[in-house]
Amino acid sequence: CRHIEGTRCRAAACSCRGLTTCSNTRASSQRECRLVVHMRTTAQGVKEEALSPSMLMKEIVHILDRGSVAHNAGMDADGVKAGGWDLSTLACVVQHLEQVGWNNVLSVAPDTRSVCICITDEAGRSHALQLIVPNDYPASPPAASCELPEAVQLPEMQGAFSIMQVIDAYKRAIAKFQPVWRELELLDKDTWVLSPLSGLLSTPARRIALENLCSLQVSLSVDFPRDIPGYQFLGPESAISGYREKFSKGINLWDPSASVLDNLQRLLGTKFPSKQDAAEDNFRLECKICMEQELEGFLPTKVCDKCKAAFHESCLAEWLQSFVQDSCAGGAASFLAGEAGGRVLFGDCPNGEHKISLVVRK
Rounded CA gap, 119 and 99, in Å? Predict the structure, then answer.
């Protein structure tokens, strides 16, 4: 907000709540309210001006410690608020942020309702913990979110809640995820990961390139990351059948004391291609229908056995579905009884005059 000394503040977001003379004005020129400057952050989460918690509280008290505040804000004397909050609530938030340490605060919304805290784990990874502070804080806990493989359950707390208690719960969860993140980082470093393309800390799954048009999807256990992962080979059946057979025959030789990457390469008898020794064009799959690599978080997983073209399953299903209405008259596609839990949709491949089929799951 911007004010001129001696004039009535007209800024709706100003913490002075419409006092005749804004107490935050510096000199006689237009200046920004120090409280707002303190709470506003840059896109990188670095505060443009840092006030100490004590100075911040002095600013808040100076704004509210006037008899005309309640009248000008349209409230009863018992309901004096700053930015829509009771002064005691705002003071509690500031006090708890001081306990966290301002150097660990990435950003604070101008109304202090949204706070982003940085948590650094033992491996030096930075995790952004987003907190939404409720109106009745600390009677109710803040809502918390962070990119983690599993949701964090906050412990039952007696009495008043604290931001620090929430942070401690997330620190314990982050410590628990260290082993699975170490395994995933080996895959990220020494293989060509096709997906996910972002949010690597929030999922224990990776899709790894094996060769052109062939890939392996693995899902690691968060609790036992070196155990046999969930797996699925993706690509033309003629190409992935050999990989599937090798994996099935050697699965009893899986060694939990070795990394997931070492086990996979040993069982499949191959060294996975990596970004250091292979070109992206060798593994970049684009759907021949929408011409995109990623669609709503999914990569093309259906590969035609005839022409080796790749498709998003949703794109191919929509393509084949468009011909179903003509099937009774000998059209291009129809439904058939298929695998357990689904039906088979078949018809002309979008990339040629041969046939292609797709299992549509229930």
Answer: 14
Does residue 347 or residue 56 have the better pLDDT? 347
The answer to whether 200 touches 280, Cβ cutoff 8 Å, is no
**Is-contact 293 284, C-beta < 8 A?**
yes
- CB-based burial label for 246 (10 Å; 0-12, 13-18, 19+): middle
CA of residue 286 relative to chain centroid, distance: 24
Instruction: Write the pLDDT tens digit of every residue in 254-295.
Output: 999 999 999 999 999 999 988 777 666 666 677 888 877 777
CA dist., res. 298 & res. 294, Å (int): 5
As given in the structure block, the two tokens for residue 36 are 């707002």
Q: What is the total residue count of the chain?
A: 362
The string of pLDDT tens digits covering residues 117-130 is: 999 999 999 999 99
Distance CA(193)–CA(213), nearest Å, equals 13
Report helix angle 87-100 to 163-176, nearest 10.
Answer: 40
Residue 74 burial by Cβ neighbours in a 10 Å radius (0-12, 13-18, 19+): exposed
- In Å, how far from its chain's centre is CA 234? 25
User: What's the rounded Cα separation, in Å, for the pair 106 and 170?
Assistant: 16
Q: Is 242:268 a contact under the CB 8 Å cutoff?
A: no
- Reported as a single tens digit per residue, the pLDDT across 304-348 is 877 878 888 888 888 888 766 554 444 455 555 555 556 788 888
